[in-house]
Backbone:
């Protein structure tokens, strides 16, 4: 008899544990599910969600995808019964792959916040608004002015300009950088540029951000389209006319780097930012989002007031007027398959985040976002030095901002293949001509 | 009694059967179906026939390259692992001092997970190569040999334990008799030990072949396929096709099915071949 009882108990336990297994991870009580793209802001978003629940009683679930895994995470999350209600697409190409899931939010208060409606992503027929950008970012060459001042104070330097502000084209940049490399011991640095990180998933600064500049000029020259991004989206093939200029700056990076070429394939972006933060190098190419990475490095020696931006000069005619690369690839979209109630609550949450006093405080001071929304006044801008530099360049009438036309690059495969051939080039396994060929052939084969 | 077991049958089998169905049978057949579909997420698939299978082989050379790299890796790794594991087993059944300590030490790497091992070996190999201005992804042969070293290090201990068990099972009487008859140690090894441990060899070959074919974490952590996908193995290629490219989910699924068939055929063939050489003790 007792044996029977034991076996009964055992089987009950098994059945129950199975039910627990099936039931866990899906409590269904969340009304808003936000799938966050930015791992660096994960904690802030969690805090925001808690605050929002306190204020309104609506629960917000925040899940953050690990770096470079957003598409994978979204792909598996959106197939679930409790799918994300707010997710992110990275520009027009990203919208193409998720268009079946994006709700038309043309008439929502949130979409109306945009100061420039043309920034939003419209449907294939040009109508409706399916995704709204929420942050404007800029990138260029970040430099440490303390080291630059030290250089310009040198008696035996070979250049004639007197400060980093006078670097206004590739020629001056190159002469300054090469002379700095010659004097690196006196300057107390181990190289002018931080490591050109080329390990898997860490090469986006070159295959996406740097490549933006030569292709921007190429698309600007398009006869059929005024807008370079549209020209890019419609380009079946590219000539890569400014390939030489792309190489100019890339070679300058790797020839004056802190690291030997052979080991660049094992460097990551955070390695580069750490080198910059510790004062081992004077310059690094990155965007204003990198401030948190610089600031949080242990033993950071860079003074907040010494950190400045230079545009990406590549030796193209007329680049003296060129500004930073400023744009966005972060767009919010609302899940079309969520219930109407969830959709409304999700939009309310976004609206609250970008219009209420509490929400705006988080956006400016914790997330450090420069937003494209009209609910923010001029004094509600982030305080970090790089964001201030971006705003300074945006407001400088003499500088022409380079938009982020890389949102028109045909696919992620295009980018990774170009990154792979850059690595091969750096390691001496192939020539630069192969990189050039790769850019052209991959563009053609990925743009179908 | 018979009646009782019939009555209880469903209670005892149900949980396992349910778990097996949820975690294996259903996904397996769903995957099979999805390999003939075009889809973005697994819940909205559209049937397209064998198009995915054609694309898996024709779209680019990735799958064939990965297949070739995997075969090269498996061939070398299986031989190295089994030969070394067998030699270690022979040595550690000779009643030398500290046998237990050695067995433990050799077995330890098996207790570390693949991702961790991958990063550890990446650090070690890069640490050496940095001195010469290289890194593990400078050249695809670094990645290849790195992977061979890593998986040998990880799997040798486990195989060694299986071989030790096999060798200890051989009756001392036979060995004594052979020695009395004047057989040389090599002769004993060839004519007695190896035939007697044939069952262990079957198991070890099966485990090493399938594990080498399916290697994923170590590959991902050590090189992630760099440079230019030259060190990408099949499992990683499938993962990258499925998750890395929008519009290629079905192709990734088709590759996975081909992969499954391939591993099954190779493993069954090996089982058949080695089983036929097993002898009764």
Residues:
């Amino acid at each position: 008899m007792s044996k029977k009882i034991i076996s009964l108990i055992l089987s009950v336990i098994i059945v129950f544990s199975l039910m627990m297994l099936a039931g866990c991870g899906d409590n269904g009580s969340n009304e808003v599910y936000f799938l966050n793209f930015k791992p660096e802001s994960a904690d802030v978003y969690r805090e925001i969600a808690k605050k929002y629940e306190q204020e309104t009683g609506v629960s917000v679930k925040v899940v953050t995808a690990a770096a470079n895994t957003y598409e994978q995470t979204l792909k598996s999350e959106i197939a679930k019964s409790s799918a994300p209600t707010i997710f992110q697409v990275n520009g027009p190409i990203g919208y193409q792959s998720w268009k079946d899931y994006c709700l038309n939010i043309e008439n929502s208060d949130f979409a109306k916040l945009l100061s420039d409606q043309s920034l939003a992503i419209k449907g294939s027929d040009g109508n409706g608004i399916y995704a709204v950008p929420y942050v404007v970012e800029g990138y260029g060459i970040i430099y440490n002015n303390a080291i630059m001042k030290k250089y310009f104070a040198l008696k035996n330097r070979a250049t004639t300009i007197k400060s980093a502000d006078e670097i206004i084209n590739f020629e001056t940049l190159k002469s300054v950088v090469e002379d700095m490399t010659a004097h690196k011991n006196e300057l107390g640095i181990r190289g002018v540029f931080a490591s050109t990180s080329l390990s898997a998933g860490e090469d986006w600064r070159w295959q996406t951000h740097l490549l933006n500049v030569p292709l921007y000029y190429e698309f600007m020259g398009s006869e059929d389209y005024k807008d370079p991004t549209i020209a890019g989206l419609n380009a079946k093939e590219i000539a890569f006319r400014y390939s030489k200029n792309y190489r100019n700056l890339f070679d300058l990076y790797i020839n004056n780097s802190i690291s030997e070429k052979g080991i660049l394939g094992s460097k990551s972006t955070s390695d580069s930012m750490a080198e910059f933060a510790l004062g081992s190098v004077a310059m690094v190419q990155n965007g204003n989002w990198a401030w948190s990475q610089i600031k949080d490095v242990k033993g950071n020696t860079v003074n907040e007031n010494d950190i400045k931006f230079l545009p990406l000069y590549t030796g193209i005619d007329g680049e003296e007027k060129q500004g930073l690369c400023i744009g966005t690839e972060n767009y919010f979209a609302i899940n079309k398959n969520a219930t109407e109630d969830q959709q409304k609550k999700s939009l309310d949450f976004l609206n609250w985040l970008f219009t209420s006093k509490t929400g705006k405080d988080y956006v400016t001071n914790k997330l450090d976002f420069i937003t494209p929304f009209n609910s923010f006044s001029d004094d509600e801008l982030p305080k970090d030095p790089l964001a201030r530099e971006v705003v300074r360049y945006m407001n400088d009438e003499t500088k022409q901002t380079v938009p982020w036309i890389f949102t028109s690059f045909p696919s992620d495969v295009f980018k990774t293949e170009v990154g792979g051939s850059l690595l091969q080039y750096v390691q001496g396994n192939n020539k630069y001509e192969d990189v050039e060929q790769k850019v052209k052939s991959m563009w053609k084969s990925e743009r179908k | 009694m018979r009646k009782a077991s019939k009555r209880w049958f469903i209670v005892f089998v149900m949980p396992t059967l349910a778990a097996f169905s949820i975690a294996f049978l259903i996904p397996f057949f769903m995957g099979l179906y999805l390999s003939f579909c075009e889809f973005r997420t697994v819940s909205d698939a559209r049937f397209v026939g064998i198009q995915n299978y054609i694309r898996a082989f024709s779209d680019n050379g990735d799958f064939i390259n990965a297949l070739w790299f995997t075969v090269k890796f498996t061939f070398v790794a299986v031989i190295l692992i089994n030969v070394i594991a067998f030699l270690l087993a022979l040595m550690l059944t000779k009643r030398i001092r500290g046998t237990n300590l050695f067995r433990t030490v050799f077995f330890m790497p098996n207790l570390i997970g693949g991702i961790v091992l991958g990063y550890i070996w990446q650090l070690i190999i890069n640490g050496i190569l940095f001195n010469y201005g290289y890194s593990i992804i400078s050249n695809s042969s670094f990645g290849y040999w790195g992977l061979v070293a890593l998986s040998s290090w990880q799997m040798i201990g486990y195989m060694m334990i299986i071989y030790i068990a096999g060798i200890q099972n051989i009756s001392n009487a036979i060995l004594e008799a052979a020695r009395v008859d004047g057989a040389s140690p090599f002769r004993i090894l060839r004519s007695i030990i190896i035939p007697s441990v044939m069952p262990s060899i079957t198991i070890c070959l099966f485990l090493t072949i399938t594990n080498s074919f399916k290697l994923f974490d170590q590959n991902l952590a050590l090189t992630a396929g760099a440079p230019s996908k030259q060190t990408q193995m099949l499992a990683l290629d499938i993962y990258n096709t499925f998750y890395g490219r929008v519009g290629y989910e079905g192709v990734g699924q088709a590759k996975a099915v081909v992969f499954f068939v391939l591993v099954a055929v190779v493993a069954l063939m090996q089982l058949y071949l080695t089983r036929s050489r097993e002898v009764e003790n």
Q: What stands out?
A: Chain B is about 75% helix and 0% strand. The longest strand of chain B covers residues 37-38. The radius of gyration of chain B is 23 Å.
